[in-house]
Design a protein that fits this description.
Radius of gyration: 23 Å
CATH topology of the largest domain: D-Maltodextrin-Binding Protein, domain 2
Number of domains: 2
CATH class of the largest domain: Alpha Beta
Number of strands: 10
Shape: globular
Largest sheet: 10 strands, mixed
Order of helices and strands: HEHEHEHEEHEHEHEEEH
Oligomer: single chain
Length: 256
Amino acid sequence: MDKHRQYPLLVAVLFLLVGRAAAASGEEIRIGGGGAALLAVFQPIKPHFEKATGITLVNLQSSPKGGLLNLIEGRVDLTSAAHALEGLVAAVRADGVAFDPATLVAHEVGINRIALFAHPSNRVGRLSREQIKGIFTGRIVNWKDVGGDDRDILVVWGRGTPGQNADFIRRVLDGESVTQHALETTNYVEIRETVAATPEAIGIDPISVANASIKVVDSDAPLTTPIVAVTIGQPSAKVRRLLDYIKGEGKAYLLR
């Protein structure tokens, strides 16, 4: 073949190979679900998994219920939550969404720990379950009643963290309502920032959100829940690779 005719052919083959390589390296897994699950599992492992596999993790945070809806409608490859799958199914069904829950498969991928956040100046280092219940329901209103300074207690409550709130109310408050005098904020970060700026405040947040701006108060309350990843049917090959990574090498990067 003439050299002048070979050159365009070689270029075309080269572009084809480069295109295929780019397509392969562009593989991604779309992950939906609540912030607690993403912060505790999928965000910490993201750079390590991507480096090890070349697969990009796209974390699409929503509410846990919204994540399940996105999974049902095909917008994500799996969804995650720090709550039981049964509760998510009930919440989506309550919105009138028709789907077969028998097609959903839950995979436990970690543990979510909810922490009590207080201002760093607060002298209280530990609260019992009954004390926490008293504070968040409004029956205990002064820090001196639990070993702290003579200062009114301000409960900080996130209206944008419904899954966390529901678990806390069910498991710690025994179904009782949070005090009507609570200060409402939005998300996990704003809860932390509000507590950090307010000496009399207390709030709840995933331990993964904690930093030096707040004090984590110890407790014997049941503040841990399993984190599940949910797929429709058995996971695809790339999702299975992710789940295996989390249970293997990825364990070293998970927040405990």
